[in-house]
């Protein structure tokens, strides 16, 4: 048997868009296990799921949740930016370490973009740190057609700038 | 008697920092009467007051409310930006038309900056439109020591860019 690298076509994730009572904990664990987010970021990720659970669509937070045989493998959280005509923020995107490097992040992103486009969105913004640790994240966005639009020096902390990427749909 | 222009020293506003049950309506009216904000922006301004009323300090929204003989004359809404070490957003600042041009906006801003500094804040960000209508707003921030850090084209709508200003404390 050929030892082929599993790619996105092999995984065939199932997407769902409604959040349920288990998701706050599951997404807390998912974002925590990636190692990319600190404790306050993980807490915010969970909080946005709770906001969606409590307020529904009015929360302004929409989700794409990827599952593989019932296991949460990745997700995105996005929403229309208040007071804009058709701009959206991609607040969170994360993929379980076991499923990284297989195209799942791109699939989750593509699905989010499809839904944003269907909702009339014309621009998607995503923010990330300029720290070395996030160079892979930045390369991912650039590879997916996002363009660096601005850098705010010392935004997250001294020496830790915020990079804002944008994709026009 | 000399016909002197009333300035900030003459007004001597009283500041309060707690919001009460009347404030959502009062701040709705204040932001609406300025003519600077559209209906969805006015709704967001009110919503942030409600968030503060419902969740207290945990909401992440702090307020400086200026009064003159019991009348709401201006206010600001600011808060620490989640997942940053010491960066703050100035979400809203507005002054009643009867009190504009008298230095009250600057007093409200100074008071907000003082409280942010006392809380350990090191940077304040404020966002506004690049449209001509807001040239006075931008001049105000620049006059108060804020520096233009980034411009995101077509952010609010096609042809309507977002300008982000920053002041390092």
Strand content of chain A: 25-35%
Strands of chain A, total number? 7
Summed up, the domain count of chain A is 2
Largest sheet of chain A: 7 strands, mixed
Sheet/helix structural class of chain A: alpha+beta
Indicate the overall shape of chain A.
globular
Uncertain segments of chain A: 1-9
Notable features of this structure?
169 residues; disordered N terminus; Aminopeptidase; 7 strands; alpha+beta; 7-stranded mixed sheet; homodimer
Care to describe what's here?
With 169 residues, chain A is α+β, with helices and mostly antiparallel strands. Chain A folds into two domains: 11-120, 3-Layer(aba) Sandwich (Aminopeptidase), CATH 3.40.630.30; 122-169. Chain A has five helices and seven strands, in the order αβααβββαβαββ. Chain A has a seven-stranded mixed β-sheet with strand order 1-2-3-4-5-7-6, with helices on both faces. In chain A, strand 4 (87-95), helix 4 (104-118) and strand 5 (123-129) form a beta-alpha-beta unit. Chain A is globular and about 40 Å long. The relative contact order of chain A is 0.14. The interface between A and B is medium-sized, with 28 and 28 residues.
Q: What layout of secondary structure does this protein have?
A:
The structure is a homodimer of 169-residue chains.
Chain A: H1 8-11, E1 14-16, H2 23-34, H3 39-55, E2 62-68, E3 71-80, E4 87-95, H4 104-118, E5 123-129, H5 135-143, E6 147-157, E7 160-168
Parallel strand pairs in A: 4-5
Antiparallel strand pairs in A: 1-2, 2-3, 3-4, 5-7, 6-7
Helix pairs in contact in A: 2-3
